[in-house]
User: Which sequence fits this backbone?
């Protein structure tokens, strides 16, 4: 263990108009170099290489030589599978924001009430989040298994017959089954976020509202919800980015099938790159995923998170 | 949140970077006293897992200073890992290969050794056509280890229950058997729809029976899969699909999973499956009590199609072999020669239920069904490698994808032919 013996303040300049201090550039460079090197090598370089490869027809063996310009991107824009991926991503985003997050919010409000066994509930609801996506997917392939699966046992018990057998095997239901599994895994995480934020709202506000005659709904609508705003906005952000990059769960659960009815952007990229050895085209898809995430991230920060980020510690100098 | 998906995006790109950076560097094995041979194979379950480990230990004992490092992976995991390594310019010294289009691409990029001169010594000990899948432009790039063919495995008891006395030898006959099985409340066919390769067997075999071996050769040359014979194959398959012969939820079923194709067959829940020579072993492994069907299991070749140019004796299948990485030490080839000795080939045949390519080892095949497959193969009039192996990967995967759409009732025979042709022209 290293402890800093000397108080940090000892090096500070005395109060008053501060002279413009020379920054210790060499020191900064020495300490920053390893991080920059790793970041450049592991993050920036692969992006650059993928960008480079996306302009070639390349099977991944040897060095790319067959330059085709923007052909891969033109093909991508005309690709029905890619269009389908985008549609499916939008569907999942819509379902997450419209169903999963409100459910998590409602649950968080419920768990905030003085409830017997509240801690146990929290633990149980959060437990799925701890499992890896692969474990979750394997678990649900067993649950949705046509003969011995739990889903079928349940549907038989309530008189619906073998309904569960085709949840993953039918092109019309597979996306909803997938959404169910995603929700099962992630609702606890969002619930926890909301619960933590809810507990940070001072009780006085609700007391005051009650004194003014506001009912529970009005108190929720005008006090709780606005104050949960920053948390909700972050939770939507995480949810959307996660959905855009969704891979493992789909890969293990359905492999993108039946046919391609549950294929996501990342699954298509994997198929093209590792199954069809069309690495140039796969790189174009990876660039598309990267750009979609980037554009979404920037726009979201600019227009939605702006208020929340104001006054945050990441200001540049005195500028806000 | 979903960290892995990000990483796979970068991983793909990263593999590319490594490929550029490491492209020229050597593997660094095989100098001085200690030589390490990295051996990647797909026998990740016993008995072959331990048999091959024992074989490696015996080789090490005979060759002081040589260490064989074994990596045994499941099929799909193997393909992904190998692809990454090969793209990084670092192929293992010895690795499993199915030959065909993928091997050709690897050879073209100069990533594997030309074994033509080396196999000369032992090629006469192999059965004819053993090296066909590994021969590209007259050069041999792999050493065959096992071989086999695809055919119908059937449950004799369930056939009897439906009043079927003899396996069908025509397509019409097969459709009739399916109808009878349905009438007797038996699921006619088990199929793994989640994995698409088992489905592609149907379309490929039909194309082979209708158009003959020449059809495949032509399509490989001129990249045209829209000939009437290919469309006809799709149309015949549609006839089967229309009878709804597959088990409930087959589109989400895996092959060797708890409730998958092999388990459905091995537990007696379906009457037939179209699968390669390994089917009985996998059925046993995935069935309740690991017993499989035992004596109730039978085998018959894919039926002939009325008026087709192909013969019922033309076989469709493939096998496994080993390729040698470009930087492998000389001992790696020595080890392949060692594996190809009849005594070692017999071990495979006896314990793992595979059909060896070493002629002298054929006597070690004892299972009656496997003997039947071996005999069918030995008397075959022609041989076609799996389509998803023989053509470039992009074409092979399109065959799998398009046939899957047909099986799900979502594509017409014409659309299947057109999509494969498009992929072939693009590649």
Assistant:
């Amino acid at each position: 263990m290293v402890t800093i013996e000397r108080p940090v303040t000892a090096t500070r300049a005395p109060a008053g108009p501060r002279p413009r201090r020379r920054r210790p550039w060499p020191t900064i460079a020495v300490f920053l170099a390893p991080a920059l090197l790793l970041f450049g090598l592991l993050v920036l370089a692969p992006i650059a290489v993928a960008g480079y490869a996306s302009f070639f027809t390349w099977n991944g063996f040897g060095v790319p030589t067959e330059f085709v310009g923007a052909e891969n991107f033109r093909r991508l824009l005309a690709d029905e599978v890619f269009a389908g991926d985008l549609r499916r991503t939008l569907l999942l985003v819509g379902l997450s924001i419209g169903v999963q997050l409100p459910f998590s919010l409602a649950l968080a409000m419920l768990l905030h009430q003085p409830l017997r066994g509240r801690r146990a509930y929290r633990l149980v609801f959060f437990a799925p989040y701890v499992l890896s996506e692969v474990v979750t997917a394997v678990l649900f392939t067993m649950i949705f298994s046509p003969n011995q699966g739990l889903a079928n046992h349940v549907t038989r018990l309530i008189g619906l017959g073998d309904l569960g057998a085709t949840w993953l095997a039918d092109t019309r239901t597979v996306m909803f089954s997938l959404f169910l599994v995603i929700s099962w895994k992630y609702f606890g995480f969002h619930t926890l976020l909301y619960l933590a934020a809810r507990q940070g709202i001072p009780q006085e506000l609700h007391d005051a509202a009650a004194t003014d005659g506001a009912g529970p709904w009005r108190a929720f609508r005008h006090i709780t919800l606005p104050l949960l705003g920053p948390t909700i906005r972050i939770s939507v952000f995480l949810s959307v980015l996660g959905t855009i990059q969704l891979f493992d769960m789909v890969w293990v659960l359905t492999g993108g099938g039946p046919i391609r009815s549950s294929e996501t952007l990342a699954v298509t990229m994997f198929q093209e790159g590792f199954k069809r050895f069309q690495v140039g085209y796969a790189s174009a898809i990876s660039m598309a995923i990267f750009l979609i995430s980037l554009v979404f991230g920037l726009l979201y920060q600019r227009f939605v998170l702006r208020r929340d980020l104001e006054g945050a510690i990441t200001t540049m100098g005195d500028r806000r | 949140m979903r960290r892995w998906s990000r990483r796979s995006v970068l991983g793909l790109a990263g593999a590319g970077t490594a490929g550029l950076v490491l492209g020229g560097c050597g593997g660094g094995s095989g100098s001085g006293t200690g030589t390490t041979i990295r051996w990647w194979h797909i026998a990740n379950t016993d008995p072959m897992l331990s048999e091959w480990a024992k074989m490696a230990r015996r080789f090490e004992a005979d060759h002081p200073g040589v260490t064989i490092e074994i990596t045994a992976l499941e099929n799909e995991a193997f393909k992904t890992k190998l692809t990454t390594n090969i793209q990084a310019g670092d192929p293992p010294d010895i690795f499993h290969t199915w030959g065909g289009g993928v091997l050709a691409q690897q050879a073209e990029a100069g990533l594997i050794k030309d074994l033509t001169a080396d196999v000369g010594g032992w090629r006469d000990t192999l059965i004819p056509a053993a090296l066909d899948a590994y021969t590209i432009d007259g050069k041999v790039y792999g050493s065959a280890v096992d071989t086999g063919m695809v055919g119908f495995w059937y449950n004799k008891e369930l056939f009897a229950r439906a009043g079927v006395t003899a396996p069908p030898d025509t397509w019409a006959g097969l459709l009739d058997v399916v109808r009878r099985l349905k009438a007797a409340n038996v699921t006619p066919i088990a199929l793994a729809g989640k994995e698409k390769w088992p489905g592609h067997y149907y379309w490929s075999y039909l194309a082979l029976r209708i158009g003959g071996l020449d059809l495949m050769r032509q399509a490989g040359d001129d990249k045209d899969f829209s000939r009437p014979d290919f469309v006809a194959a799709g149309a015949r398959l549609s006839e089967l699909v229309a009878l709804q012969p597959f088990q409930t939820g087959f589109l989400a079923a895996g092959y060797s999973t708890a409730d998958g194709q092999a388990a459905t067959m091995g537990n007696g829940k379906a009457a037939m499956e179209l699968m390669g020579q390994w089917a009985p072993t996998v059925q046993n492994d995935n069935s309740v009590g690991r017993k499989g069907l035992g004596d109730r299991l039978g085998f018959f070749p894919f039926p002939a199609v009325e008026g087709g140019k192909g013969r019922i004796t033309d076989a469709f299948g493939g096998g496994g072999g080993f390729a040698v990485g470009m930087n492998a030490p000389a001992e790696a080839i020595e080890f392949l020669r060692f594996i190809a000795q009849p005594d070692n080939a017999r071990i495979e045949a006896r314990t793992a239920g595979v059909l060896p390519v070493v002629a002298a080892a054929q006597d070690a095949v004892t299972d009656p069904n496997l003997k039947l497959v071996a005999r069918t193969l030995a008397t075959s009039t022609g041989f076609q490698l799996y389509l998803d192996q023989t053509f470039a990967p992009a074409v092979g995967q399109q065959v799998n994808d398009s046939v899957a759409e047909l099986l799900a009732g979502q594509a017409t025979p014409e659309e299947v032919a057109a999509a494969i042709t498009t992929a072939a022209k693009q590649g």
